[in-house]
């Protein structure tokens, strides 16, 4: 395998890990703000125990976010040097803004929240966890800005780099040959050119930033809520009267229902509309639009075939797609055949990742509605079988987040920066495949062991919930 | 402001963030490297508890420094990180192992489990410090690349004597720093143990400092030329010497807080001296030092004035918040570390 393939695998694996833990960190932090504020106002020990129990889980998950965040930043330089030197002025600025003050506040106050029990008052504890949640939300905004700029770049000019700039000849090597054998003439940045920031506000608030931020935050809140509900359900199956678990379930389920709806409508819906407007190739891929009748159907099940062939098998709802995408029943959308093959993303991956995400989302909405109904009738804690369902639901929003991330990133291919720079022109030609393999194996093993160790830690915590023997509320080492 | 002035500000910003990282995370890395010397379980718990609330925020300084370099000097970021790919990947692995060990040590109760994370905490801290120093040493020394930007050296070439010396110096500086931090924050028993250890550590550190200075003088004369041309170097050099010398009497008389301050200033000025010997170069080119521009400089590789301006505004708004919060949290955790029944 060559450096490009290895670098892409490494990026996918580490970013996937980042995206598995990031939503959990944000969602849990805001839920803990609710719990800690209630603990402060009521002074009841059960709120306090709930905060400590889930605080320990938040701490572990933040460690993974910090670790994978460092990996993400470093590998831009080590494995994607042409991409970094081309767009660093814009992406780097977003990363600095994510770190200062967002990520800093998150890390500083998480330390205070987790380890400061005996040193700070209840009120300060609420403030600390609030700052963690705020910092997480701020830094997420800037990371979404960086990624959205790669999806829908604005506010930049492609300019000639200063002639004295060394390394331009090296970067020139990147031109013309892509992995799939097409020769690129236009729009592939070769060395002496780079993207320079010309309008910060336009780059930050590019067409996809806000809608994707809403979608990401709603998904994060849902992830946190369902994770908390799943943990509580697993404790309740052993001890139906467990006060901490009952409280956690009472708080997390209504919020879970709220955000499971919000993640689909309006935020998810508006995100799809934005993609239809700004990235028609990606839209055709996620929607499985192989033929373009005047009133496009909603294709929900199909077998994507090679572009150019019409797909017969499938369940399609006529006209529904154009209504969903554009709010009108009578419009024409570009289908896959309207684009040259070398400008299309990998179709099957994009289509299935997107649809699996939607199916999981609908499943979660249904389960949450039923759960809240049970809760209102006061029968939730007796339904042992439904509690088991809640345990299995807990990781689904995280899986859906990763699937959504796959759809969005795979759907942008073959571009790393949409219509500006190809992925095949972005990787470091200066590192050997051996070096790339070494770093892939090392970082892959680290990610995998982090996952194993976190699962171990989680199971250990769930087996010793607060209030039982061998209490370990998390926090202090 | 002229592009050159903005470039200088960004250069200073990158090294300020790096100095912040070295001073703050140097505490944690030093504590980690001294971890095996704490024999009893309660001593190990105390040292981990001293650093656990702070290491996450300290690590973010490195992330911020890297991001600032990425934004302000994209070409330098791409060049340095590609050339030092193996070293930096190993540094990442070591930092992650170090951080995770702190949090996982208490999830299990068995001695084997604790022993595993204790040794990983030590190994991660040691490897992080050495690799950080080796990376900085190589940047100081410069890397061989031709006019096409291709790297001409080998991986073993990165493990040259000067870079290794820089690694050892970094590790020793952090060890002294971490030992002082522990001594300032623990009870009589720990302090007694550490005050027997500290003079030896100080001797090793001072020796490494002298050897590294001589090595720079004889092996890397371009650094001396750079330092002579930049007035701030005239400030950093004597301050490093004074702080390093003052450490010993402060340790002897048990004034650990003052000694900690001195070692912080010393480490910050060491990073400052690195910056002053490089400026205006960020990545010296070993192969053509005489031909015009000596590598990547703030003139030929900085981002657009727009980016540098945005960067300045972001940090002017954000860093005061960061520094204030850091101060508040360090103040909240000031004083002696006490173990309770929850601490494992």
- The largest beta-sheet of chain B arranges its strands as 1-2
- Please report the number of helical segments of chain A: 14
CATH topology label of chain B:
Formate dehydrogenase/DMSO reductase fold
Give the overall silhouette of chain B.
globular
**Overall domain count of chain B:** 1
The helix-strand sequence of chain A is: HHHHEHEHHHHEEHHHHEEH
Tell me the greatest interface.
A-B, 85 and 87 residues
Sheet having the most strands of chain A: 2 strands, antiparallel
- Please count the beta strands of chain B (DSSP E, at least 2 residues each): 2
Uncertain runs of chain A are 163-191, 301-315, 469-477
Q: Which percent range fits the helix content of chain A?
A: 55-70%
Secondary structure topology:
The complex is a heterodimer of chains A (477) and B (344).
Chain A: H1 3-42, H2 45-79, H3 81-115, H4 122-151, E1 156-160, H5 168-172, E2 193-197, H6 200-204, H7 209-236, H8 243-278, H9 280-287, E3 298-302, E4 314-317, H10 320-326, H11 347-377, H12 384-393, H13 396-410, E5 415-417, E6 421-422, H14 433-463
Helix pairs in contact in A: 1-2, 1-4, 1-7, 1-13, 1-14, 2-3, 2-8, 2-14, 3-4, 4-7, 7-8, 7-12, 7-13, 8-9, 8-11, 9-11, 11-13
Chain B: H1 3-33, H2 41-51, H3 55-72, H4 74-83, H5 85-104, H6 111-141, H7 155-158, H8 161-185, H9 188-219, H10 221-229, H11 232-252, H12 256-278, E1 281-283, E2 296-297, H13 298-301, H14 305-332
Antiparallel strand pairs in B: 1-2
Helix pairs in contact in B: 1-3, 1-6, 1-8, 1-12, 1-14, 3-4, 3-14, 5-6, 6-8, 8-9, 8-12, 9-11, 10-12, 11-12
Label this structure with key terms.
heterodimer; A: 477 residues; mainly alpha; two-stranded antiparallel sheet; disordered C terminus; B: 344 residues; Formate dehydrogenase/DMSO reductase fold; 14 helices; 2 strands; 1% strand; globular
């Amino acid at each position: 395998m060559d450096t490009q393939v290895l670098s892409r695998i490494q990026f996918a694996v580490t970013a996937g890990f980042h995206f598995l833990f990031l939503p959990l960190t944000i969602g849990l932090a805001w839920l803990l703000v609710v719990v800690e504020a209630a603990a402060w106002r009521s002074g009841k020990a059960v709120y306090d125990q709930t905060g400590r129990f889930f605080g320990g889980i938040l701490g572990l998950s933040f460690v993974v976010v910090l670790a994978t965040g460092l990996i993400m930043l470093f590998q831009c330089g080590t494995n994607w040097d042409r991409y970094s030197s081309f767009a660093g002025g814009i992406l780097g600025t977003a990363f600095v803004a994510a770190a200062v003050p967002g990520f800093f506040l998150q890390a500083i106050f998480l330390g205070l929240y987790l380890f400061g029990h005996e040193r700070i008052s209840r009120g300060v504890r609420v403030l600390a966890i609030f700052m963690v949640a705020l910092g997480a939300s701020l830094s997420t905004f800037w990371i979404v800005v960086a990624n959205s700029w790669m999806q829908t770049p604005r506010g930049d000019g492609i300019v000639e780099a200063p002639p004295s700039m060394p390394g331009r000849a090296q970067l020139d090597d990147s031109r013309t040959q892509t992995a799939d054998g097409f020769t690129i003439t236009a729009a592939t940045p070769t060395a002496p050119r780079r993207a320079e920031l010309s309008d910060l506000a336009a780059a930050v608030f590019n067409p996809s930033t806000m809608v994707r931020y809403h979608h990401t935050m709603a998904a994060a809140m849902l992830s946190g809520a369902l994770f908390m509900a799943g943990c509580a359900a697993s404790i309740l199956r052993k001890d139906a009267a467990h006060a901490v678990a009952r409280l956690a379930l009472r708080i997390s389920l209504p919020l879970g229902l709220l955000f499971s709806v919000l993640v689909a409508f309006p935020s998810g819906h508006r995100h799809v509309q934005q993609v239809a407007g700004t990235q028609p190739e990606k839209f055709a891929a996620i929607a499985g639009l192989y033929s373009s009748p005047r009133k496009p159907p909603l294709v929900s099940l199909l077998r994507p075939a090679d572009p150019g062939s019409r797909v017969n098998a499938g369940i399609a709802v006529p006209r529904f797609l154009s209504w969903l995408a554009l709010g009108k029943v009578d419009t024409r959308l570009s289908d896959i055949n309207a684009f040259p093959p070398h400008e299309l993303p990998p179709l099957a991956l994009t289509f299935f990742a997107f649809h699996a995400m939607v199916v999981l989302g609908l499943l979660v909405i249904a389960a949450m509605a039923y759960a809240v109904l049970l809760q209102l009738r006061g029968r939730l804690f007796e339904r042992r079988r439904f509690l088991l369902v809640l345990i299995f639901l807990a990781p689904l929003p995280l899986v859906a987040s990763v699937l959504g991330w796959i759809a969005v990133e795979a759907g942008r291919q073959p571009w790393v920066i949409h219509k500006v720079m190809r992925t095949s022109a972005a990787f470091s030609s200066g590192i050997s495949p051996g070096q790339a393999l070494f770093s892939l194996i090392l970082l892959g093993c680290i990610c995998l062991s982090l996952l194993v160790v976190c699962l171990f830690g989680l199971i250990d915590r769930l087996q010793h919930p607060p209030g039982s023997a061998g209490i370990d509320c998390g926090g202090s080492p | 402001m002229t592009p050159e002035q903005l470039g200088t500000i960004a250069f200073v910003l990158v090294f300020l963030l790096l100095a912040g990282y070295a001073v703050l995370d140097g505490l944690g890395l030093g504590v980690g490297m001294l971890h095996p010397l704490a024999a009893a379980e309660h001593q190990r718990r105390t040292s981990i508890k001293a650093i656990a609330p702070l290491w996450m925020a300290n690590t973010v300084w490195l992330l911020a420094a890297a991001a600032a370099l990425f934004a302000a000097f994209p070409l330098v970021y791409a060049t340095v990180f590609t050339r030092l790919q193996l070293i930096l990947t190993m540094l990442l692995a070591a930092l992650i192992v170090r951080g995770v060990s702190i949090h996982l040590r208490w999830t299990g109760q068995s001695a084997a489990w604790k022993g595993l994370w204790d040794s990983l905490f030590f190994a991660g801290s040691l490897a992080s410090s050495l690799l950080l120093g080796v990376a900085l040493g190589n940047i100081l020394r410069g890397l061989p690349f031709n006019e096409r930007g291709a790297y001409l050296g080998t991986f073993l070439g990165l493990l040259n004597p000067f870079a290794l010396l820089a690694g050892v110096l970094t590790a020793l500086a952090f060890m002294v720093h971490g030992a002082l931090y522990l001594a300032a924050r623990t009870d009589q028993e720990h302090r007694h143990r550490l005050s027997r250890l500290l003079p030896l550590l100080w001797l090793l550190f001072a020796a490494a400092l002298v050897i590294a200075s001589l090595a720079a003088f004889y092996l890397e004369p371009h650094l001396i030329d750079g330092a002579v041309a930049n007035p701030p170097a005239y400030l950093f050099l004597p301050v490093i010497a004074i702080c390093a010398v003052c450490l010993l009497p402060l340790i002897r008389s048990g004034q650990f807080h003052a000694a900690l301050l001195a070692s912080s200033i010393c480490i910050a000025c060491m990073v400052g001296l690195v910056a002053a010997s490089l400026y205006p170069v960020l990545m010296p080119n070993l192969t053509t030092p005489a031909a015009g521009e000596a590598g990547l400089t703030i003139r030929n590789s900085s981002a657009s004035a727009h980016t540098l301006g945005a960067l300045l505004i972001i940090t002017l708004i954000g860093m005061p918040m960061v520094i204030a919060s850091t101060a508040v949290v360090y103040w909240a955790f000031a004083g002696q570390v006490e173990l309770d029944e929850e601490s494992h």
